[in-house]
Amino acid sequence: MPLTIKHYGHADAPALREVLLDIHDAVYRDDQDTFHSRARFAEFVDSWSGKGSWSCVIGYDGDEAVGFAYGAAFQPGGWWKGSPLPQDYGSEATSFALSELMIREGWRKTGASSQLHDALVSQRAEDRVTLLVDTEHPKVQKLYESWGYRKVQEQRPFSDSPLFAVMVKDLRNGT
Question: Which residues belong to any copy of the N-acetyltransferase domain (predicted)?
Answer without folding.
Answer: 14-172
